[in-house]
Amino acid sequence: MVTKRAVVQNKAGIHVRPSGVIMQAVQDYGGQVSLKTETGETVLDSVMSLIALGLFPGDWVDVTVSGPDETHMCDTLVSLFEKHFDFPPRT
């Protein structure tokens, strides 16, 4: 089991679009990913479980991964939580 802390950097927080990117990274992972924040805890198994945490810029999230290649998966997720997403504006 590996746990690392990330601080949300995206200027709009972790809303639907970043949540989709994060879920895509874990969709085929053979282990378990859980998140703990100031607002709650969840097993990362759906977009809604992630959005429900209500993560805003500057919020911290502890990412815990257990399973195959857990260090790499944890590093990947920390990187995504700390990413400045630059989605094109909707037209």
Q: Tally the structural domains.
A: 1
**N→C terminal distance:** 43 Å
Mean pLDDT: 93
Looking at CATH, which topology would you report? Histidine-containing Protein, Chain: A
Secondary structure tally: strands = 4
* Beta-strand residue fraction: 25-35%
* Fraction of residues in H or I helices: 25-40%
- CATH class assignment: Alpha Beta
- Given helix and strand content, the structural type is alpha+beta
Count of runs of 4 or more consecutive helical residues: 3
Architecture in CATH? 2-Layer Sandwich
Shape: globular
- With strands numbered from the N-terminus, the spatial order across the biggest sheet is 1-4-2-3
Full CATH superfamily name: HPr-like
Rg is 12 Å
| Low-confidence blocks of residues | none
